Amino acid sequence: DGGITQSPKYLFRKEGQNVTLSCEQNLNHDAMYWYRQDPGQGLRLIYYSQIVNDFQKGDIAEGYSVSREKKESFPLTVTSAQKNPTAFYLCASSRDAGANVLTFGAGSRLTVL
Amino acid sequence: AQSVTQPDIHITVSEGASLELRCNYSYGATPYLFWYVQSPGQGLQLLLKYFSGDTLVQGIKGFEAEFKRSQSSFNLRKPSVHWSDAAEYFCARGGGGADGLTFGKGTHLIIQP
To answer: Buried (b) or exposed (e) across B48-59, using 16+ Cβ within 10 A?
Structure first.
């Protein structure tokens, strides 16, 4: 079955460390997205990519970086510059950038110790 | 900027009773509207979507939603809830652009026996 795989499910890191969250999709979707979820805050867009080798900042990109070297993959790096990285991170994809129907992965929970 | 408002943070409903979750969106041309559901620690699942046409849309799990342009609303309804409906519900809108969806902050649904 097609879908989005996020790994790891749970991740702990010490302050000052960078960490990379994996997102892989086998839906043949062009567009991919990273959202951050905090309790009571809904989902906020970090980065999005319409096509391979292209990505754009979302509303809260500071302290994060991404790459899109392959259509299937859109990893997110949470850098030490992110002041409050503890959150639930959701990756999503859509058929194309204007389709707007997002399919989500199961999420990754990052906790900074 | 586009915005989505879900006025109710928590709603408690008795099992078997009817349900209505409220959603208001900021005015804009051609709103694409969605309802997603999230179980604890999981990703989001699409319940239904509205792009155009019939203003009453049917979704999965017995849910429906009605688009009312005059009220800028897209409320979610279910005639009889089941204990398994307990979850977080998110309303979202897209504008057909490349930057994905704008989400409300969510409504936490509690089902009483």
So the answer is: bbbeeeeeebeb
The first and second tokens of residue A112, run together, are 């900074």
CA B80/CA B45 separation, integer angstroms = 20
User: A108 in contact with B at a CB cutoff of 8 Å?
Assistant: no
Rounded Cα distance between A10 and B15, Å, is 33
Q: Give yes or no for a contact between B51 and A98, defined as CB atoms under 8 angstroms apart.
A: no
Select the residue from B51, B60, B101 to test the A interface by mutation, using most A Cβ atoms within 10 A: B101
pLDDT digit string (tens) for A1-11?
779 999 999 99
| Digit-coded pLDDT (tens) for B37-96 | 999 889 999 999 999 888 999 999 999 999 999 999 999 999 999 999 999 999 999 876
Of B44, B90, B99, the CB nearest to A58: B99
> Which pair of structure tokens corresponds to residue B21?
């979750």
